[in-house]
Amino acid sequence: MNKIETLKAEKDGLDIQDDLVRFAREGWKTIGDDDKERLKWAGVFMRRPTPGHFMMRIRMPNGIVSSDQVRLLAEITRESGRAIADVTTRQQLQLRWVTIERVPEIIARLEAAGLSSLQTGMDNIRGIIGCPATGLTPGELIDTAPIAREFQRIFLGNRAFSNLPRKFNVTITGCREHCTSGETQDISMTPALGSVGGSAETAGFNVAVGGKQGSGGPTLAVPLDAFVRPEEAAEVCAAIALIFRDHGPRESRSKARLAFLVADWGAERFRKELEARLERPLPPAGRDARGTIHSDHIGIFRQRQSGLNYVGLKTPVGRVTAAQLAELARLADRYGRGELRFTASQDVLLPHVPDPRLGDLTQEPLLKELPYNPSEVRRGLVSCTGTDFCNLALIDTKTRAMALAKDFERAVGKTRPITVRWSGCPAACGNHHTADIGLQGCKVKVDGKIVDGVHVFVGGRGGSDARAGLRILEDVPCDELPQVLERLVRFFPRPDRTAPPAEPGPGTPP
Ligand code: HEM
Ligand code: SF4
Question: Residue ranges of the alpha helices (H) in 279-375?
Fold first, then answer.
């Protein structure tokens, strides 16, 4: 058994919750190596670049939070003294600079506010992703927010789900505009029109399994040729997770993702096992209802509720301050209905803004920092954590991403919307394999000196015709990136050359 399997067998990760008060009393230096891993079951992550300080990852199923919850997160962030937090590409928030002494009290406050950091790392079901505009956008088939909540209710704190072979990612989306990269998730539920028992077509999901981005490169989820009704979606997700628990390979960490089981079994056998667990057959896949448009939800959009709008704001590669979080909460109360939604491109939506309030909202000072109308270069920018907090990072991704965006904006002017995503190492947490331009950090030797560099990938995308980007350049020093990208972007189609003109590219509001 590998080291992680051994430590899980010795003590369930969830049991670490019983030790938190002791750790807080005795200090971080007393925490053993195995317990540092188990702490991730509590959502508490030791960060080697910042000794003595931890990151806490907060769940937000489908990215949805209340203004009261965001105010609390702002408060905890402010109390940490260095007032920053990160919005992630799993629609979660990562709190920074947390000391172990504060962890029990922070967890109590999170719980009281209906938030949880449980099972956000290691071999658990990670944050459930869904379209952030679910329930608001006229372009969707199903409101997935209740399904994400229900699935989380099933597995959170439940020992039946706390020892999976490896991490487990789930996307449930009823949206036709692909904002969630579901194709590279362990479970991908996408909108479809299917027929159950010969009845008329009804809205539900097609199911694909075994997608991933890491562990040897990206793999697209394999369709199971199964149609699932919204009311059974959470149960089906739970059954798939338990198949993984019981049959997923555990010997080697790099071969333990669901993808390897699916490759071994094939879709047919996997589906049969799923039906056996559910004790009923599943109807064949329905008509794929995914469209060809991709929306990042940045901008001002009409809701399906008459007279209301949601406003998508761009964060600078996910990094937000305590003051910005507090201000977002205030704006959600003042202009909306006390609700905010984080997106899988590290951004935030402010829903339920009535038409007459839009003008005043756009004049708020915060919207200069988190614009609803960023440049086309900036709106598609995503970055993983990088050297700030991640010891695996080879380069400082977030700072470099923002600096490059500035140069790039100047150099390319008006291009079509373009997604540029950065990961600081091959782990690919910044989802760079599914971007127009994906940048993966590396070290490069220039004139005998080691400098920050990237490998460049192009042409990746999610959606119904998903594909991984092609690695076209290697070892490009970061200082040369503006010139390299400027040349590269000339080969991307501009809106005036795109056929048909009515079909927007990635990131364009519908
Ligand atoms: C062995 C492989 C991997 C390692 C060691 C790894 C490590 C990490 C670390 C250390 C962080 C937190 C950094 C911080 O403090 O902010 C992180 C975050 C994250 N990683 Fe990875 N990662 C791996 C693979 C992946 C893959 C394949 C993906 C999917 C594309 C991914 C997606 C994410 C996301 C979305 C976050 C942000 C937190 C969240 O909301 O879940 N990671 N990863
Ligand atoms: S991609 Fe690499 S550098 Fe970036 S957060 Fe993941 S592990 Fe760290």
Answer: 322-335, 358-362, 366-369
Cα of 57 from ligand 1 centre, angstroms: 11
49: Cβ contacts below 8 Å, ≥ 6 apart: 387, 388, 389, 390, 391
Cα separation, 369 vs 234, in Å, equals 37
430 is catalytic: yes
- Buried residues in 393-425 as b, exposed as e (16+ CB within 10 A): bbbbbbebbeebbeebbebbeebbbbbbbbbbb
485 CB within 6 A, ligand 2:
no
Which ligand is closest in space to the CA of residue 45? Answer: 1
> Percent of the chain scored above 90 by pLDDT?
81
Q: What is the pLDDT of residues 158-215, one digit of tens each?
A: 999 999 999 999 999 998 877 777 888 999 999 999 998 888 999 999 999 999 987 6
214, 248, 430, 453: the active-site residue = 430
* Each residue's pLDDT tens digit, 450-496: 999 999 999 988 776 778 899 999 999 999 998 898 888 877 765 44
**Is the beta carbon of 423 within 6 A of some atom in ligand 2?**
yes
Question: Could you give phi then psi for residue 127, rounded to 5 degrees?
Answer: -50, 135
Q: Is 57 a residue of the active site?
A: yes
Q: Is the CB of 389 under 6 A from ligand 1?
A: yes
Active site residue 166: yes
Q: Which amino acid is at 479?
A: D
pTM passes above 0.90: yes
CA of 393, closest atom in ligand 2: 3
240 lines ligand 1 (CB under 6 A): no
Q: Are 417 and 379 in contact (CB under 8 A)?
A: yes
For ligand 2, pick from 126, 398, 423 the residue to mutate: most ligand atoms within 8 Å of CB.
423
- Is residue 348 within 8 A of residue 360, CB to CB? The reply is no
Rounded to an integer, what is the distance from CA 382 to the centroid of its chain?
11
Cα angle 378, 173, 145 (rounded to 5 degrees) comes to 100
Residue pLDDT, tens place only, 384-432: 999 999 999 999 999 999 999 888 887 766 666 788 999 999 998 998 9
pLDDT for 415 equals 63
In our burial notation (b when 16+ CB lie closer than 10 A, e otherwise), range 300-318 reads bbebeeeebbbbbbbbbbb
- Angle, in degrees to the nearest 10, between helices 103-112 and 67-79: 170
Q: Which of the two residues, 178 and 332, has the higher pLDDT score?
A: 332
